[in-house]
Design a protein that fits this description.
The protein is α/β, with parallel strands linked by helices. It is built from 14 helices and 19 strands. It has helices at 16-19, 47-51, 60-68, 80-86, 127-139, 151-167, 195-205, 211-214, 231-234, 246-249, 253-260, 330-341, 397-406, 424-427; strands at residues 7-10, 39-40, 56-57, 71-72, 109-113, 170-172, 179-181, 188-193, 215-221, 276-281, 313-316, 344-355, 366-374, 382-384, 409-416, 441-452, 456-468, 472-479, 483-493. Helix 5 crosses helix 6 and helix 6 (151-167) crosses helix 7 (195-205).
């Protein structure tokens, strides 16, 4: 049975529109700050219908409401109305409501943390609260004066106050800093996009207002964990009148490394390996004009900066934001639901390759594409490909065998849900054994290429394999017209 935690979504840097101190009490903005922006998929060839994937992705928030009966607390942050509806006390994390209610429970609520609102004149924090934030940051070994509150540390302290309000029986009031009753929901899950991931990390790493004890899981999307090397370009915006430039300095590589440890968190991140997950965007060609020239990025964040060492991560072919954005598409939602609610931790590695008899490549160099999909859903949980610019570099056959002996290719490092429902049409797709149809499956699609400087790569062969996710470690064979590969599949219960 999956565990359910309250979820806080933390958005990223908003650019000039959100940093300008010019919005008043009548300001009209997206209350979800991009977290509930969806997309319609065109399907001229009928492929999506064949694969049983929705033509409409409604948005992350709405999908959590529809699929898991989460309560959207955007207009009820104290859950007062929800409590009246339930007529019950908060259950322990993982429990649901009494019979008769449709899987409703206080711990299945979600919040959108809109930290830029506290920059607005009509939402200015009181002196008591600013003093409280500065004192807490200083107590947690990040000395700061009240007048210096800005950027990631400031927003992290505000986030930690919100976490305390949700998780603890007693909390500090955001109005005046005095003691107030909390919701007492024990633990939350944080989902941060871009700078929102750094804000979430900072709150946990510095244990602001006890955040380290009160956060169960952390997922980041397109977050510059190593700092954003292209952030200097954003500095060009500082000439705009009224623009807060404080935010920009807090996600440069120098600052992130000095105060957060970069991709090896320091202070340490007190979460288990399977309680942290990083999702990396790889599509820059369809982003803003300048961003299209930034290779191996999502248009803003370099792929090599977007993960944490020794924690799972995956790649999706999405831009940093916008029409093809990482939050706005189905891939991220499928990854998020498996990380938040899945009970299995899965790793898949290519450990050996053999060219079939009669096939030759000589001194030619080969590379490979791998796409990992859930059974029956046309979406990628991980993509390693030439278009994503993250495929293993071309190697000769000899070099390839040597590399795999020393360091196998990791083609999936993430999560699965043993209780995920699969409709009858998808249960017995080709490659699924009837005796294993009730087990969760991944579909692995793979291709091998001969490197060619003129065209990039010439396709040698391709194939797919249905991977039943039974607990334990086993070796499977991937076979196509050109070669065979050994795939090591490791599946275990999450910690």
């Amino acid at each position: 049975m999956p565990k359910f935690f309250p979820i806080i979504f933390v958005h990223g840097w908003g650019g000039p529109g959100d940093l300008m101190r010019d919005f008043g009490a009548a300001d009209e903005r997206d209350p979800y700050v991009g977290w509930n922006t969806g997309r319609r998929y065109n399907d001229p060839d009928g492929w999506i219908k064949f694969r049983n994937t929705e033509l409409n992705f409604e948005g992350l928030v709405l999908r959590l409401v529809k699929d898991f009966s989460y309560y959207d607390a955007s207009n009820d942050e104290e859950l007062a109305d929800f409590r009246k509806f339930l007529g019950m006390k908060p259950p322990a994390p993982g429990e649901t409501s009494a019979p008769g209610l449709r899987e409703a429970a206080l711990n299945k609520a979600l919040w959108i943390f809109r930290y830029y609102e506290y920059n607005a004149e009509h939402l200015q924090l009181s002196k008591q609260v600013k003093d409280l934030l500065a004192a807490e940051l200083t107590r947690c070994n990040f000395p700061v004066k009240v007048e210096e509150l800005a950027g990631v540390p400031y927003y992290a302290a505000l986030l930690a106050l919100k976490i305390e309000q949700i998780t603890c029986e007693k909390c500090r009031s955001i109005t005046d800093g005095s003691e107030a009753p909390g919701l007492g929901l024990k633990k939350v899950a944080l989902v941060g996009h871009s700078m929102g991931g750094l804000i979430s990390r900072f709150a946990i790493q510095y244990n602001l207002f006890g955040a380290a004890e009160n956060v169960a899981r952390l997922m980041t999307m397109a977050t510059p964990h190593g700092g954003a090397h292209y952030a200097s370009a954003a500095g060009l915006l500082r000439f705009l009148p009224g623009l807060r430039d404080d935010d920009i300095q807090f996600f440069t590589p120098q600052w992130v490394y000095e105060f957060m440890g970069g991709q090896v968190p320091a202070p340490s991140l007190p979460l288990k390996q399977t309680d942290v997950f990083c999702l990396i965007g790889t599509r820059h060609n369809d982003y803003y004009l300048v961003a299209r020239k930034l290779p191996r990025t999502d248009g803003v964040v370099d792929q090599r900066e977007a993960y944490l060492e020794n924690y799972p991560y995956a790649y999706v072919y999405n831009t940093h934001s916008g029409e093809h954005g990482i939050r706005e598409n189905h891939d991220a939602y499928q990854a998020l639901r498996r990380f938040l609610f899945g009970d299995l931790y899965v790793r898949m590695l290519i450990t050996e390759v053999e060219i079939n008899p009669g096939k030759k490549v000589g001194d030619g160099k080969m590379f490979f594409h791998y796409f990992v999909k859930p059974r029956g859903i046309n979406t990628h949980l991980n993509e390693i490909s030439e278009r994503a610019e993250n495929q293993p570099r071309p190697r000769t056959y000899t070099e390839l065998k040597q590399r795999l002996q020393q360091d196998p290719y990791v083609i999936y490092d993430g999560f699965a849900d043993s209780g995920a429902l699969v409709d009858n049409a998808a249960r017995l797709v080709p490659g699924v054994l009837r005796t294993k149809q009730d087990l969760p499956h991944f579909q692995l699609e793979y291709s091998s290429f001969l490197s060619d400087e003129r065209v990039g790569g010439k396709l040698l062969a391709s194939g797919y394999k249905m991977i039943p996710l039974t607990e334990g470690t086993r070796i499977m064979t991937l076979e196509d017209q050109f070669m065979k590969a050994k795939l090591r599949v490791e599946v275990r219960q999450r910690d």
